[in-house]
Each structure stands twice: as structure tokens, then as C-alpha cells.
């Protein structure tokens, strides 16, 4: 069951938190809303759930308009950041809750409950209370509780952010497996780019109540359309530049001091001013020789050895600082004070409108 | 802002219904009091200014409240400090303290102190026999003594909570920066716990101003605000309620001022304690331990005196006002259970009804206030806390003035008795219900709704069970305080509707101490048995919500 959002407006106290947002989430898609706190991603999720009323616009589940439908009639499964397990009920009763609300009871119902709990690896804790479980177990119970009712859509509000790093990766896999098996349309809210990139079929990067860019994880990472997206998904060096020469093959030639650099040109029309975006891991460092004039001239001012890689800070001739991550053999080989040149594949650097 | 979706859900309609109930039974009576002081043929305020006795009564109330507040702080704070910080012999009986204040009705405290130190008291007579003449217990001496021992526990409880919540690493930090342990305590701990001490001291102040039972029994000819208010209410009878309303207004204004001051202090003094690693009590032995243990035990034992005296008095032979100490009888108890059981029956019915209605109302209205906010709910919050500013006497006058006749005549009915208890104790239940609801995250409810459970079903299936333990302890607190209520019910009761407390009060007035003790002992049993059952059988932490 796909989700269609058409020209949605949500406001709190007269302020538009979400303005004119349209979005289509295809059936069976794992869709992630990614953004910093306050960008409207949780509000959008809660509007899809029905806990927040839309001021204008419509939400469709498949072809059914659910905009005015109260949340308990939307047949959704929801997983919360704080688990929201009923503390006075056992694990089994928590999972059975939604089935009971649908009029089910007896052994048939308990069979479903047991099956779902075994599915998340918790068949042995059915009679315990939530307080006796670990954080990871609690979130698994919450997941089983949401899935056992066979919801039309699964909504998850930062379900991993209360867990420690190791558990996060485990539960991430559990969620992905369950979602794929049930082929259920899922909306997942997070501020963690790694979560978004690793789990999603599609990502919507949100900013100030709007979807700033929509695409597959790879599209979002490799070809960010705005500086905001580039910055939020992965790290990026941003330098304000003026394009010296726009080539017919879609590249732009940019002069930084005496050195030149080639980058993909996304500027349109006659505009020449833009932002040059380069990811630290895409830059390559070389010792500087006088002949080399292709790349960024810089001097190493900081060096951080991180085991698998070394993080450098370079000062460009105009004292702008950029970050470079060096991998490979001898990645920590450049001393502080060394003059270096940083090169980048033209397909990995790009100029976008400022 | 009211939206179409709000009209469909039941919450707005429930809020409006609750608002109507609160307007009729709280706002209307209070408004009547405030207007009645000036609406008669004579202006109550000019009469008050021309009446030296009335003015003296107000002044005396202020003096008494100030003195008792000071003595309570002087006893309560040191006691709290040593119990929170030290372990010593006899400490476990101090844990009984909160129980004692709640369990012993004020009227009984006054009675038993009188039986011990009054003109014909046990101790008075003993000392007189060996040649020591005590000053008369009526007046300042008795008032200050009894009120101190009744109210110091409020300071004690407030201070203990503040000290145990205090992060002792702050103190260690101060010591590491070079201040001595004693100085560290003064410089670091005192400012943090001071707001709590002040808040509980102000609570004591308002309770002394509004106190009825002890004042009536011990003030004798000393004019006190609560006493003259009651006397004005009695003497004006069915006539225009001018003077009682004037005095009641003075009391309301005084208590309101204190409550605002209290709120200001609490809001200014709320320091965030980042991590509450409370200090572990350290053992204290040797002569210092003995002294502290003895002093603390002395206070507790003195607080327990009423229980002992009343237990003895209930089985002592008497002829009229004369107690024949040492001669035992069951006649007094026979009277309570067989000859005149009506007060016992009345108490059980009225307090039971008030508790049941009060708890249901508090649970629902608190839920509306915290979880289902709409245009009406802030008013529910404000109005339901008004009774905090009303002494029992004021509330009683308000109910009598409003429902004596007119469109809703309730005088003489059981309804008005239940109403008096219900309104007086409503803030108790509200406060405890709201505290628990704050601790139930919204996501729990949303989880239930997302699983297909409609809002009302969610309330009953998920929210109510989670509130359960808090509701049970609030119910027991409401029950105990309703059973011991005197000052409001004594104004609204009519013949045949006496409760146990009213009966005890009347018997003390007639100086029939043996009968009073018997009814008092039953009264304490009625209070204490539910507490024991709740804590022992149902494992409810009765004092958790306090």
C-alpha cells in the first residue's frame, strides 16, 4: 500500500511547520525522512499517523483519503523512540493488545503473538514485564507489537536513538529483515545519516518543513542538489567560488589562486557564482612540485591519526581551511607544515548554486 | 481554538461538564462569600473596623501563625537533618512521623493534650500534688504547644525530601575547593534546600491561620480569626451572613497572599540538581549519638502522647466530666457501637462517598488537564486548586450561604456533608493524579491508539491501569483526611448527621472526655485500618504521592 501526500500544510500556533509538501512513497518502499531536529520530519510522520491534523492538503493510503480519519482507524503500525510499551502488561499482553482491539482472542490470537515474538527472537520472555527487559529487547517487543496487526504502513520515529552503538546495528538488521519479508511500506524518521543510507530504499532529506531532496541513498550522497544536503549527508568542504570557464561537457573550470580545478557544473543560465562541494574522502594528497598546477594548493596545519585513515586540515593560500581524509598505505605521511596539493576526480567535485 | 475534530471527541464535552460542576460548587460559594460582606444593610467592613475584638482576632491569628511557624522550623529542620544524614539508635521510629500527622485528627490532639495538661489533666494534677503549679493550658501556652507538635512534621517532611534530593558531591566539591565541612554545608547545601524549608514553613502558616479544631478547644477567651468567624456564622444563623463573610474574606485574602509568596519562592528557588547522588547517612555513636537519639525520640514520643492518652481514656470510668483514672470499663465503647452508632455510620458513608466521587473526578479531570488540553482545561486547573486557599470554616460558610435555600437547597441533606468533604479534599486527589499523569509519556497512549484502540478505550485500558497505584494511595489519603475533617462539616451538618469528628468535638465541648476518647479511638481505627490494609495487603506506598 503506497502513501500519497498532496500539498500538505501543518501548522502549530499559526506557524507553518510543514508547507505545501507533496510526496509519493511507493508500495513496499523503505522510506526515510532524514533531517536535523526541528526540520519537521517527526511532524510529518505524526501527520501520516493521524496524531497531528493537517491544516490543508490530503494524505492517501493507496487510493483511500485518510486525511480526516482518526489514527485508530488507519491500521498503522507505529514504533516509538521511547518504545512506549505498556509497563503494567506482560510482553505477550503488549503484543496481543492490537489484536484484542480488533476483536481477536483465545488460542488463535496467542499463536500469532508467540509466532511474532519468536520472529524477533524473544519467544522466551513472553511473560516478563517490560521493566525486566534490556533496551534492545524492548524495542524488539515494540516492533513485534506493531507488526503483529499486519498494518498497512509501518511508521517509525527514531526507533534506534535510545540504543547504544552495537545494539543499533543489530536492531537495524532486524528492522530491515522484517520490513523486506512483509514487504510493508515503511516510513522511518531519523537524524542519523548512516542509518538512513544503510537501511533505505529512498530518502527524503528535510529542511524547514520541506523535502529538500528525494532520491536513493546513492543519489543523495553522490549528487547532493544543495549545499544543505551535501553538508547534512556526509561531510563536505564548501568553498564559495566563481566559475572561470563553463565547458560544453558539463564541467566547470575554477581558479583558486594560481591553481585550477575541474568540477561538475550544475549552475544554469548565466550564473557564475556558486559553491564548490568536495567530500574529504574524495580528495587525494600529494607532495607539492612546482610544475603541478591542477588541484588545491595547501599547507598541512592539523593532523589527526584515526587508525584506518588520517584526517588533515589544509590551509589554502587565502587561509580557507579544508578537511581531507587520507586512506591507503602511509596515510599519515604528511607532517604539519608540509606544502601539499590536493586533487579530486572532476566527477566527485561539483559546483552548485549558492 | 476549537476545531471540528474537537467537537467529535468526548473530551471537550467532559471538560465542559466538569467546568459546570466546579463553577457551581466552588466558584459560586466563594463568590457568595466575597459579595455577602458588602451586600447586607450594613457594610461588614465598616463594622469590622469599629470592632476591636475582630481586629484583635486577626492580629492574634497572625502572631500565632508566626510563632508556630518558627517553632515548627526550629524542631522540624534539625530533626530532618539528623535523620537524613546520620544513623543512630531509635531512628526507625522517626520514620513513623508522617503517619502520625495524617492519622491523628487535630481535634483529638487538642483533646488529649487537654487531658494531659488541662486544668484537670493527668500531668497537671501530678505536678500540683508535688507542689508545681503549671500556667493555664488555655490560651497562648496551649495553642502554641499543641499546634507545634501537630504541624512541625510538615516542615520535617519537606526538609527531609530536600536534603535527600541534594547532590552530596556538591558538598564534596566545596570541600575540595578548600572550605571546611561545616562551612561547605552552610554555603552549598543551605541555599539549595532553603526554598523547600520556606515553602513548608508557609504551608504551616496557612494551616495555623485556618485551624479550627485546636483554636476552638484551646483559645478560650482569646479572640482568634477562625474562632470569631465560626462564632459569627453561628450567631448570624439564618440572618444576612455579613460578618462571617467579612471574616472569611479576610482569611481567604491572607491565605492567598501566602500562597502567592510561596509560589514565588518555589519558582525562584528551583535549582536543577544535575545528578541526585544523595548522601548516605553516616552512623553516629558515642555521647553525640545518644544525645541526638534521645532528642529525636523525645519529639516522636511526645507526638505519640495523644494515641496513648486516648486509648486509656476510652476505657476509663467517668461520671460526667470527672475521669476516674485507674478504673476500667467497656461502657464508653458500648455507647459508640450500640447505643449511639449514628456518627460512625455517617462518617463511613460520607467519607466513602466523598473519596469515591473525589478520586473519579480527580482522575478524569487531571487527565483532561494534562493530556487533552483545550480552551476549558486551564480553568479546570485554576478552579480545582481554589480550595487550597479556603480554610474549612470558609468553605463551610460558602456552602451554607449558597445552598441554604434558593435554587439548590441542600441544607440538612447528606449531599451537603459529602460536598463539604469532597470540595475540601479535592486538591489532594488532583495533585496526586496530575503528578502521575505527567510521568506517563504521550507515546504510550499513541501506541495504544495506533494499534487500533479508540481514545476512550485507551484511557480505560492503558492510562487508568498505569495510574492505578497512585489512585489507590490518593484514595487512602483522601479517605483519612475526609474522615478527620471537622471545620467545614461542623458548619453544614444538621441534627442526625453528626460524623465521628463532630461528635468528638461536641463531647469535648461538654467536657465528657471518656465518651470523647471512645469515639476518638474508633475514629483513629477508621483512619488507620485502611492504611494498614493498603500497605500490608496491597503493598501500596501510601506516602509516595505526598
From TrEMBL, chain A:
Gene Ontology terms describing biological process: quaternary ammonium group transport
InterPro entries cross-referenced by the UniProt entry: AAA+_ATPase (IPR003593), ABC_SmlMolc_Importer (IPR050093), ABC_transporter-like_ATP-bd (IPR003439), ABC_transporter-like_CS (IPR017871), Mo/tungstate-bd_C_term_dom (IPR008995), P-loop_NTPase (IPR027417), Transp-assoc_OB_typ2 (IPR013611)
Presence of the UniProt keyword Ligase in the record: no
Keyword Nucleotide-binding applies: yes
Gene Ontology terms for molecular function: ATP binding; ATP hydrolysis activity; transmembrane transporter activity
Family: Belongs to the ABC transporter superfamily.
Top-rank taxon: Bacteria
UniProt source species: Shinella granuli
Keywords for the protein's UniProt record, in alphabetical order: ATP-binding, Nucleotide-binding, Transport
SMART domains named in the record: AAA (SM00382)
A GO CC term attached to the entry: ATP-binding cassette (ABC) transporter complex
Pfam families recorded: ABC_tran (PF00005), TOBE_2 (PF08402)
Protein name: Iron(III) transport system ATP-binding protein
ABC transporter domain location: 3-233
Automatic annotation (TrEMBL), chain B:
Localization annotation: Cell inner membrane; Cell membrane
Domain ABC transmembrane type-1: residue ranges: 58-265, 344-534
GO biological process, one term: transmembrane transport
Similarity annotation: Belongs to the binding-protein-dependent transport system permease family.
Record bears the keyword ATP-binding: no
Membrane topology of this protein: Multi-pass membrane protein
Pfam families: BPD_transp_1
Gene3D superfamilies: MetI-like
Cross-referenced SUPFAM superfamilies: MetI-like
A GO CC term attached to the entry: plasma membrane
Protein name in UniProt: Iron(III) transport system permease protein
Residues spanning the membrane: 12-34, 54-81, 93-117, 137-157, 192-219, 239-261, 290-315, 348-370, 382-401, 407-423, 516-538
Keywords tagged on the record: Cell inner membrane, Cell membrane, Membrane, Transmembrane, Transmembrane helix, Transport
